[in-house]
Amino acid sequence: MVLPHASLPPRRPGHHAAARADDDAAHRRPGAAQRPAAALLVLHTIGAKSGQERDTTLMYCPEPDGRMLVTGSNFARGSHPAWTANLLRNPDAAVSVLGRRIPVHAVPIGDDEREAVWRELEEHWPGYRGYERASGRVLRIFRLTPVS
Known about the structure:
Layout: H1 17-25, E1 40-46, E2 53-59, E3 61-62, E4 68-71, H2 82-89, E5 92-97, E6 100-108, H3 114-124, H4 130-135, E7 141-146
Antiparallel strand pairs: 1-2, 1-5, 3-4, 4-7, 5-6, 6-7
């Protein structure tokens, strides 16, 4: 599922580059080479240290069964993004997609399926695994499963 440009919230300080890139893509000149817009969600977690709700805009890879994959690339920085620690501590979270808030349960991708998941991610974003090589760490990948 790809979020249409019109559904993006207004920009605010600290708004993630993925959302800015999607917004900027809508303003490219006609005829310019374009990739499909990234699927975006807002992840609502409980802070691992603070206990406060935290919101993070992320690209996600939709799976056919309604689950979603999110990757803690942190723009290839050497440290894991805080939202990944939040999910490790509190795996029950929520996402907002197309204006709808959906409760989810997050499970880290294990070594047994890591390669298959990377193949799936790179089908959506060729070269994305380069972030893992550039960061010098194993990126945390989570599968978000909607719960009722």
